[in-house]
């Protein structure tokens, strides 16, 4: 069997999920805006340090892939390398089988064929609303890796921290560890994987979780992951946006952020990118 080539992950990642918020028209114009050099968001020369990715809904993966191809063709024409790619496209879910009689599901092979590099799995909304289980998420992660894509696995505790901070951290790490272990057991050891630490109680809120709590839980998650041949990145998600990364923020604790609503306006994305670039010394 031919060996699988996986995407290369840089030091830091900023991933944006549009969930089911946008019309197709808004998604495609948003994608164009993200890639427009005039907006100064994607900097191919910084690719080894910082990578952005958009995870639109299934309907708009194809048009976004076409927009990405146009962008990459222009880069090549101007003499800029697109290896490794300067921007990733992702999907919000996939089926654990490659093809078959699975009405309403989406094949990981089809997702890959459209040019996606990342598949988001096990998001709290899929678990709470659609009943996705740890076992299903782990099988989807394996199917994602089998296509040479990177699983982006969402983990996070359900209940907000109580009065004793250390107890809250221990409880959160224990809750996250179950899915982290299930996924790591299901995927090849050399496959890259991204875990998005998203405390369920911090998703869709006005403010993110506290920096100290996130840093402590992420450290615990890194301990559960341990050392492995494949790259592992741990991001934070849950009402993340401008102002969270820089001095006294999450920059030192995590490998990037998973953005939702606070990336809906291009200006918000630009601010977050700038904060990360400044911390990396590439602004
Ligand atoms: O997928 C993204 C996360 O669930 C965060 O979403 P949010 O920033 O809108 O809370």
Topology:
Layout: E1 12-17, H1 24-35, E2 50-55, H2 61-77, E3 87-91, H3 108-113, E4 118-121, H4 124-130, H5 134-146, E5 150-155, H6 165-186, E6 193-197, H7 211-225, E7 232-237, E8 256-259, H8 266-280
Bound molecules: glyceraldehyde-3-phosphate (G3H).
Glyceraldehyde-3-phosphate binds next to loops.
EC number: 5.3.1.1
Enzyme class: isomerase
Protein name: Triosephosphate isomerase
Characterise this structure.
Its EC number is 5.3.1.1. Pfam families: TIM. This is Triosephosphate isomerase. Keywords: Gluconeogenesis, Glycolysis, Isomerase. The structure is a single chain. This protein has 283 residues and is an alpha/beta fold. The protein has one domain (12-280): Aldolase class I (TIM Barrel, Alpha-Beta Barrel), CATH 3.20.20. It has helices spanning 24-35, 61-77, 108-113, 124-130, 134-146, 165-186, 211-225, 266-280; strands at 12-17, 50-55, 87-91, 118-121, 150-155, 193-197, 232-237, 256-259. An 8-stranded parallel β-barrel has the order 1-2-3-4-5-6-7-8, surrounded by 5 helices. The longest helix is centred in the middle third of the chain and has 22 residues, at 165-186. The radius of gyration is 18 Å and the shape is globular. The structure holds glyceraldehyde-3-phosphate. The site of glyceraldehyde-3-phosphate has 12 residues, from loops.
Side by side, the strands of the main sheet go 1-2-3-4-5-6-7-8
What are the low-pLDDT stretches, counting only 5+ consecutive residues below 50?
Answer: none
What is the CATH domain class?
Answer: Alpha Beta
CA distance, first residue to last residue = 43 Å
Number of helices: 8
DSSP strand count: 8
Keywords: Gluconeogenesis, Glycolysis, Isomerase
Pathway: Carbohydrate degradation; glycolysis; D-glyceraldehyde 3-phosphate from glycerone phosphate: step 1/1; Carbohydrate biosynthesis; gluconeogenesis
Pfam family, one: TIM
Organism: Penicillium cataractarum
